[in-house]
Amino acid sequence: MAQNHLADLSAEELSRADKRQITRNLTADLVALGALLAAFAYERIFPARTAVAAAIYLVGILIEWIPMLVSAIKGFLSKNMDHAMEILVAIAVVACFLDGQFALAILVPLILNIVHFFEERSVMGGRDVIDGLKKMQSDTAILYDPESKEEKEISAKELSVGQLILIKPGCAIPVDGEIVQGDSAIDQKSLTGEPVPATVSVGDKVFAGTYNIDGVLTVRVEKEYNDTSFSKILNLLQESERIQIPEARIVDRFMYYYIPLVLAIAAAVALATSDISKAISILVVSCPCGHMLISSAPMIAALAVSTKRGILIKNSKFVEQLCDVETVVFDKTGTVTEGDLAVADVEACGAEGEENVSRMLGVIGSISSGSLHPASKAVVALCRERGIEFPQAEDIKEHIGRGMEGKLPAGTVLYGSRHFMQEQGITLPEVFENEPQVHTGPVNYVALNGVLLGRISFVDRLRPEAPESIEALRAEGVKKTVMLTGDKSEAAERIRAEAGIDEAFAGLLPEDKLERVKAIRAEGGTVVVGDGINDALALKEADVGIAMGAMGSDTAIQSADIALMNNNLRNIPFAVKLAKKTRGTMYQNIAIAFASSAVMMLLSGFGVITALAGAFLHNIGAFIILINSARLTKLE
């Protein structure tokens, strides 16, 4: 049969093994068909030599039956119901042989193999999509030597962190890196699902699996070929093919009783009608092809449509718990707000001359250059804009949700929130006792060798799609929305009101967010949406964790159940809608599979469907399931 069950292999090996198995099956089918035609012709030419014709028939029967018998025995011994089809057809072939229906003993498995070939191709389409994605990461790179200006084409797998490569117009980007020269537009649809190219320039990150559209870029390698975000995404997509969900487990449990039930029905019909052909027909039409597709076909369709939108589904929580969510909890900065913070004000302690401010910005830039936090990016961008040079601090340590520390030749740098400074024993001057109330972003402080240098305030803006997305979540049955933030209450309240969120809790440290999520979760199914960096603990605690803007962030990809490769909040209600549609489709498929099997066995019992016709018709349920599941790809 064209079914393969090689779960112990990697996804790439599995795909190759499947294709090799299909080739072997089709070759065996052609040989068996040749034996059938030869035996049929021999019977017509030499009608008296029945033994020779029977021997030729036997060759064709064994070619089809032996591989099927091996699979059936493996399935029987391991109680693996994925082999239910092989068990039933193997018994049907034996019945045909004992009844003297030699041609039928070849034709039944032969037709089943041909029909299942097309069925298997449709299922393997999901793997072909992943194979297609793999080709988007270039295998070669142009290594660039800035001193000699020499360009050399090498394998992308040979690249090391720190090397420079050239990305020419129309070329795929082979690894993750940072632009050191040039500007261009990058096609990022493969990762984010966004159709509009992203404009990039010096200092911006670029990622493997995306395409350079126009300008020539010089890029410093930051991740090696097998360590890119794109590689990690492909690995997760391959793993997601094996997601086992509750609906599939229900079917698996039923299948333990399915084979004995079918055998009992076939035996009862044979005894009642004294017609073994009807029993053979029942065995053939009862092959559970559609049953194997009940959950896999909808999940493949859901993965296809979600990947196209930049939604990375990692595990079965997508269907198990996202359908029953009651509360959605949002982080503020970078989730409900745009996260592209801008520096609003810089205040130096004592004299506020330009030299003092520039010195302070250089100190902050030295430690911020080692962080991906939006506030750190904003400081680095401002330093570059003003032409302020800074060395990167050494021994940088990030205190999640609080601040950072590192070492410069001038001493130890501390940079972070008011809470962080107080924890480190830094005394704030009276003039800094009250934080500014006019900005919607965080306020951070910087100290060198225990002496406060000043503070920096940021401004943040609400994502324009936030109010629409909150309303869409309510339309999907979400009862309550909550926002958690470490920022001051005035900024949190302003953003909450603009977005239409029900509740907001401000001034929270990461452990405070975790405790708040635990309390909310005790009241019902909870989804947490965050950036996956400062919110890793809360994401893991939630029933379903969704990481926003996960492109380029390994932490975000690993810490959440669902990762959004873009920052579009509309994808959150879409994910809830897709989960509900996927589960609904699975329930429909269960009804289709068992109803079609029952009707086919009933018609076979009354002699309406013969075994030969059943070999074609038993797949009707499977094809209906495939068509029903394909409707998910049209979801918008």
What can you tell me about this protein's structure?
- The chain has 636 residues and is α+β, with helices and mostly antiparallel strands.
- The strands form four sheets. A seven-stranded mixed beta sheet has the order 10-22-21-20-11-18-19, sandwiched between helices.
Top keywords for this entry?
23 helices; disordered N terminus; 636 residues; 22 strands; 51% helix; six-stranded antiparallel sheet; seven-stranded mixed sheet; alpha+beta
List the helices and strands and how they pair.
Blueprint: H1 11-45, H2 50-78, H3 84-98, H4 102-134, E1 140-145, E2 150-155, E3 164-167, E4 177-181, E5 184-187, H5 189-192, E6 198-200, E7 205-206, E8 211-212, E9 217-221, H6 229-240, H7 246-273, H8 276-285, H9 289-292, H10 296-308, E10 311-313, H11 317-320, E11 327-331, H12 332-336, E12 342-348, H13 354-368, H14 374-386, E13 394-399, E14 403-408, E15 411-416, H15 418-423, E16 443-448, E17 451-459, H16 466-475, E18 480-484, H17 489-499, E19 503-505, H18 510-521, E20 526-530, H19 536-541, E21 544-547, H20 554-559, E22 562-564, H21 571-605, H22 611-617, H23 620-630
Helix pairs in contact: 1-2, 1-4, 2-3, 2-4, 3-4, 3-8, 4-6, 4-22, 7-8, 7-21, 8-21, 8-22, 10-21, 10-23, 13-14, 16-21, 21-23
